[in-house]
Amino acid sequence: MRPRASAHKQGIAAARLLAIYRVRADARAIEARAQAIAVEQSVEMPVSAIDDPYVLSEIVGRVEGIAERERGFFEVRISLAAATTGFEAGQLINMLFGNSSIHDDVVLEDAVLPATLAAAFPGPNRGLIGLRELAGAERRALTCSALKPQGLPPRELADLARRLALGGLDFIKDDHGLADQAYSRFADRVNACAAGVREASRETGRLTRYVPSLSGNLDQLRAQVALAREAGLAMVLVAPMIIGLPQLRALAAENPALAFMAHPALAGASRIAPPLLLGKLFRLFGADATIFPNHGGRFGYSRATCAGLAEAARAPWGDIRSCVPVPAGGMTPERVPEMLDFYGPDAMLLIGGGLLAARERLTEETAAFTRMVEQYAYR
Amino acid sequence: MRPRASAHKQGIAAARLLAIYRVRADARAIEARAQAIAVEQSVEMPVSAIDDPYVLSEIVGRVEGIAERERGFFEVRISLAAATTGFEAGQLINMLFGNSSIHDDVVLEDAVLPATLAAAFPGPNRGLIGLRELAGAERRALTCSALKPQGLPPRELADLARRLALGGLDFIKDDHGLADQAYSRFADRVNACAAGVREASRETGRLTRYVPSLSGNLDQLRAQVALAREAGLAMVLVAPMIIGLPQLRALAAENPALAFMAHPALAGASRIAPPLLLGKLFRLFGADATIFPNHGGRFGYSRATCAGLAEAARAPWGDIRSCVPVPAGGMTPERVPEMLDFYGPDAMLLIGGGLLAARERLTEETAAFTRMVEQYAYR
Predict the structure, then answer these.
(1) CA distances from A360 to A162, A322, B39 (A)
(2) B348-367 mean pLDDT
(3) Among A188, B53, B323, B361, which residue carries the largest CB count within 10 Å?
(4) What top-level class would CATH report for the domain B5-118?
(5) Cβ contacts (< 8 Å) between A268 and chain B: which residues?
(6) Given an 8 Å threshold on Cβ–Cβ distance, is B50 in contact with A149?
């Protein structure tokens, strides 16, 4: 409801969220540009044509601060009424960056959500502690690899899964390119790979978890979740920007025992700062683990971006569980010590192609990787 | 199924899609970079570690051409097996740009889909001809305005809708910021605004159509579609990049009489060329009309981008109906003649804030806008 006038004076701060933008502008133009963004992200019309006092005082975005960060680049802080989000994932990102995403002088750097808004999104179902339980790993970093390439039939992917699992991994995820394709149907692949990993687990005594990649609309995602659960699986992979953020939220809410790994496909290079999107927001909407391209791999994220992302995923945040950062993207066993030093034990190391390149020595190389992680003495 | 070897020799072209990228690179580096993108967008692992002949010959992306477009920028054409898309909207965009969206040296410029793949997505339900029928407008450009600002209660939005409709508009859409908020619930707003527009239509004798904005996950979207249909509405607005492309496809498929207007929120500035994303792909997945920021308004699209977008939305494309381009984003009545010359009659002109600024003269200014469009003699 629109609060009565008297309510306006109480707790306004608690009812507003803060969007923090990095804006490229001339010093002379930045005040007008900041005001324009505040309008674009809220009422999207000339403020002079608005009479309603509630809209003017609460709904129109408010420029809360402007600070030059480097020559020609400004940090602009704009507050928005939390009520505008409808406490829904899609509308939240719409309020933060819907139209401004089309402006190439603006990057969405960060968002600060009031507790009332964050409480509408309970975050990860399992979180770091839950994933440690799934893996039976109390203190060390977690390990993961990927099933590739797409195009292989289910029995070959399953054989790969089995050989990877024999190396003692905690998690084996599908490549995010594995969907529901005619040459490898989701149901066939998931049953085959789950069986392959189970067989290896009996041999190793490890709790290796197979994590299938889901795709499609919410109906298809639900059908795939049902198949995964029937196969006894505890975690699934989704690409939130492809399925749409509201679907991640819906799946996480209706499967409270299931863990979710988020993939950054279609997340863009930098228009939304990766620590915010892949760290904070994916976590808020239900990601228990978030994959991102580690610095020094095939992608261009800096060390600072990666550190910021890990921080956003893991930092204490009310009742919201930690999300496990999963650095990846062209990693190799050689980089394990450096990555463990950089991320510490509360992370999951994902090496895909770097292990698959070992071919017939796949299980041995994988075992060397998992052993290195288990035995590492953190600095 | 993985085809038998003999099938490989037949119709391979028909079974491949072409992704066209604009890549920033040194001339010495472009061949390796193009090859890396082809791998990234397909198998995402060292090709040397792949044995399977089907994967090597069909699934690994193929660089089909490299051409320098300007110094340091290359057009790279990569073909991918259509089967990798699973003939599903999300996986199609994943194959075209999933991981490469994270590389800031690559823009997805265009995509050419084989007929077999396009046939999996029947496109707009109503298309240009259908929207002309809805509006009772055979030849002229269509007209549209927007209900704003968010924060108003349903009765005030409904009054605005009524006064806009009295001006003889064809379509009145919700601002894309109108969601399901406590101060204006979707059901209340839609019923009130539909009634307001109906009342005005009885007075004007026009077929003005109210187009509510949908939000949320697929369940919520479906519930909102049901409410819209119960209110007698024929068209709805969605932001495909926020709800997720698979949801647009699902809604369009299961509501074959309903028309869909697409909003560009969260579509980004340029990492996917707007003619491809807002024109071709939104059309393919079911948009009957596509809103985009016209050149010379609040956003940075060039004339060439706008012309290309309109072309992608309207060009003949097998059995796929035309999608109506809807230039918007800070347009004013003064620009109508120029816009009509630029886009011709097969377009919808959307003026939101530019009309609302007229305040008590809203109906008169709206009537002047619609009259201008009706009486315009195209050059």
Answers:
(1) 13, 37, 22
(2) 96
(3) B323
(4) alpha beta
(5) 101-102, 268, 271
(6) yes
- How much of chain B, in percent, has pLDDT values that exceed 70? 96
B321 token code pair: 């109906």
B58 contacts on A by Cβ (under 8 Å) = 151
pLDDT on residue A269: 75
The correct CATH number of B127-375 out of 3.30.230.10, 3.20.20.110, 3.40.190.10, 3.40.250.10 is 3.20.20.110
Residue A244 to chain B, least CA–CA distance (Å): 4
Q: Which residues of B touch A271 (CB under 8 A)?
A: 268-269, 271
Band of pLDDT at residue B13, cut at 50, 70 and 90: low
For residue A2, pLDDT beyond 60: no
For A9-118, which CATH superfamily applies?
A: RuBisCO large subunit, N-terminal domain (3.30.70.150)
Test mutation, A16, A102, A163, A186, chain B, max B CBs within 10 A: A102
Q: Say if residue A1's pLDDT is above 60.
A: no
Mean pLDDT of B272-288: 98
Domain definitions of chain A by residue range: 9-118, 127-375
Tokens 């919410």 correspond to A218
Nearest CB neighbour to B98, from listed A50, A93, A176: A176
Span A68-80, pLDDT tens digits: 999 999 999 999 9
Q: Which two tokens stand for residue A172?
A: 């084996």
Q: Answer whether A247 sits within 8 Å of B244, measured CB to CB.
A: yes
Looking at chain B, the whole-number percentage of residues with pLDDT higher than 90 is 94
Q: Are B129 and A296 in contact (CB under 8 A)?
A: no
Report pLDDT digits (tens) over B165-221.
Answer: 999 999 999 999 999 999 999 999 999 999 999 999 999 999 999 999 999 999 999
| CA A181 to mean position of chain CA atoms | 25
Mean pLDDT of the A284-308 span = 95
| B79 CB burial (10 A radius; 0-12, 13-18, 19+) | buried
Residue of chain B whose alpha carbon sits nearest to that of A180: B86
For the whole model, what pTM was predicted? Answer: 0.95
Statement: residue B376 has pLDDT above 50: yes
Instruction: Tell me which residue in B216, B245, B267 faces A101 most closely, judged by beta carbons.
Output: B267
B299 to chain A: nearest residue by CA?
A103
CA distance A264 to chain B (A): 7
Residues whose CB is less than 8 angstroms from the CB of residue B91 and which lie 6 or more positions away in sequence, other chains included: A179, A180, A181, A215, A216, A242, B84, B85
Smallest CA–CA distance, residue B309 to chain A, in Å, is 15
Locate the DSSP E strands across chain B. 16-24, 62-70, 73-81, 106-112, 142-147, 171-174, 209-211, 235-238, 259-262, 289-293, 324-328, 348-350
Cβ-defined contact of A180 to B249 (cutoff 8 Å): no
